Amino acid sequence: MNDEQQLIDAAKAGSVVAFTGLVRSYRHRLLRFLLTRCGSYADAEDALQDTLMAAFRYLHSYDPRWRFSTWLYRIAIRNAQKIRSELVVEFSELRDEEGDPLLHCIAASETENLWISARRVLNEEVFAATWLRYAEDMSIKDISIALDRSVSWTKVNLLRSRRILDTEMRRQSKGDEAYG
């Protein structure tokens, strides 16, 4: 039994300390992911808080056949969707540099341009699948579970997203050369 499973078992038995240990290991990654799905940093924090409260409340329903991270991301995705539907935030309103939460969670400029472009050219679900695969290093199977999509859908859309992003980055590169 691994350390994470021991923490899960202890948390299921009522240990707040064990649950806090689980939260500590996932909090930053979940917040970074939620920043890509929510309209603001405050919304992402709200979704994170709702996610962690739901995880604590429903921990008894966690099935150890699946990865714990997959279960958490599934909850996070639902909470982000709930917040988005309540606020009806459009991505087009988030394009200014000050208000774009994605700019706060990506550091390197090439990677920054890639993720900003990805958010602009990919639909929400495909962007989420791409982020989970390449930023969070989740398996195809876990992504399909988290997004409630088939493994085939996940594979096909990850391939399409790579092609779309490759084309977009080439287009941007040519545009930069024209100004240089």
Describe what this molecule looks like in 3D:
- This protein is an all-alpha fold and 180 residues long.
- It folds into two domains: 1-90, Rna Polymerase Sigma Factor, Chain: A (Orthogonal Bundle); 102-180, Winged helix-like DNA-binding domain superfamily/Winged helix DNA-binding domain (Arc Repressor Mutant, subunit A, Orthogonal Bundle).
- Helix content is 73%, strand content 0%.
- The protein has nine helices and no strands.
- It has helices spanning 3-12, 16-35, 41-57, 68-87, 102-105, 109-121, 124-134, 140-147, 151-179.
- Helix 2 runs antiparallel to helix 3 and helix 7 packs across helix 9.
- The protein is elongated, with a radius of gyration of 18 Å.
- Mean pLDDT is 82; it is low at 88-111.
List keywords for this structure.
180 residues, elongated, Rna Polymerase Sigma Factor, Chain: A, mainly alpha, 2 domains, Arc Repressor Mutant, subunit A
Strand content: under 5%
CATH superfamily of the largest domain: RNA polymerase sigma factor, region 2, helix turn helix motif
Mean pLDDT: 82
Number of helices: 9
Classified by CATH, the class of the largest domain is Mainly Alpha
Structural class comes to mainly alpha
**What is the architecture of the largest domain at the second tier of CATH?**
Orthogonal Bundle
